[in-house]
Amino acid sequence: MKLSICTDVMGDLSFTDMLDKCVKLGVEGIEMTGGGWSRAPHFRADDLLADKGLLKTKLKEIEARGLKIAALNCSANPLDPGDMGKRHRKEMEQTIRLAGEIGIKTIVTMSGLPEAAPGDNVPNWLVYTKSWPDEMPERDRYQWEDRAFPLWHDLVKLAKEVGVEKYALENFSAMLVWSPETLFRLRNEVGASVGMNLDPSHLMWMGADPIASARALGPAIHHCHGKDTRIERGLADVNGLLELKDVTDVANRSWNYVAVGAGHDLQWWKEFFSVVRMVGYNGWVSLEMEDFTMSTEAGIQSSIAALQATISR
Question: How many distinct structural domains can be found in the chain?
Answer without folding.
Answer: 1
